[in-house]
Design a protein that fits this description.
Elements: E1 2-6, H1 15-28, E2 33-38, H2 44-47, H3 58-63, E3 80-84, E4 87-90, H4 96-103, H5 112-117, E5 125-130, H6 136-143, E6 147-152, H7 157-175, E7 180-189, H8 194-204, E8 210-215, H9 218-223, H10 230-233, H11 238-254
Parallel strand pairs: 1-5, 1-6, 2-4, 2-5, 6-7, 7-8
Antiparallel strand pairs: 3-4
């Protein structure tokens, strides 16, 4: 299983939209995919049409992980199967704030998610929606990941990307491992805006790390409220076609990528 984190230092850049569409795209290609929501907002499940209600997921996965404990839960018990054909989900909820506190009391908390993912078999990909906050939970998510995709919206590009890069460099220095940055993805792009031109120029300068552009699109703005991806809501929309092109480019790059930096 290759684990791909979708991460950014700033919110509002289409991170969850990208994680959900990437996971759904891979599933549509016949891959077996696990989507993990470790963002404190817990929106991935809502995006896929799940009711906004408490359910077992990331909280139990990260804290009820000791077989010696009465509340132990196997990782397989916390997976919601086939939220779409070929796509499973481990959801999240506001209790993730408690996880931050309790993990900080452990002597070596960083591999907490990686250990649990090792229990799960049969997946080709795991896509992780990582929260933008620089905290222990996001570090745990990155520690479990092989690769990172960084969404960059107009006006948030350089500072957000550099901040995440510095976080990964610090992680490598302190913990001895960090996921490799697969590339940057331009999001929420309106080519008629000057600020979008600046982002496009920056992406062009990235060379092979340029994963393409997702244009600002009505279908993408609406589909999450419908509990669908753009592939389902309006499959012929520009948003659906942009995410399809992004997914194809990502698969091409993965053929020759070394997982860890």
């Amino acid at each position: 299983m290759r684990t791909i984190a979708v991460a950014a230092e700033k919110g509002g850049v289409g991170k969850t939209t990208t994680a959900v569409h990437l996971a759904h795209f891979l599933a549509q290609q016949g891959k077996r995919v696990l989507l993990i929501d470790i963002d404190s907002q817990g929106q991935a499940g809502e995006f896929l049409g799940l009711p906004d209600e408490p359910r077992a997921g990331m909280y139990e996965l990260l804290l009820h992980d000791d077989p010696a404990l009465r509340h132990f839960r196997r990782a397989s018990e916390l997976v919601m199967l086939d939220v779409r054909p070929g796509l499973d989900l481990i959801p999240n909820d506001p209790r993730i704030a408690e996880v931050e506190i309790q993990l900080s009391r452990r002597p070596r908390p960083y591999p907490a998610l990686a250990r649990r993912l090792a229990e799960l078999k049969g997946y080709d990909f795991c896509v992780v929606d990582v929260g933008p906050t620089v905290n222990l939970v996001s570090l745990v998510a990155l520690y479990a990941s092989d690769l990172v995709v960084v969404p960059m919206a107009p006006g948030s590009g350089k500072s957000g990307a550099r901040g995440l890069t510095r976080r990964l460099e610090a992680m490598k220095a302190e913990l001895g491992t960090a996921p490799a940055v697969l590339g940057m993805l331009g999001t929420l792009v309106n080519r008629r805006e000057k600020i979008a031109g600046e982002l496009l120029e920056e992406l062009e300068g990235l060379g092979p790390r340029n994963l393409g552009v997702i244009h600002r699109n009505t279908a993408l703005a609406e589909c999450s409220t419908k509990g669908q991806t753009a592939f389902e809501y309006k499959p012929r929309s520009r948003g659906a076609k942009d995410y399809e092109a992004f997914g194809e480019r990502l698969l091409e790059k993965l053929e020759g990528v070394t997982a860890h930096a």
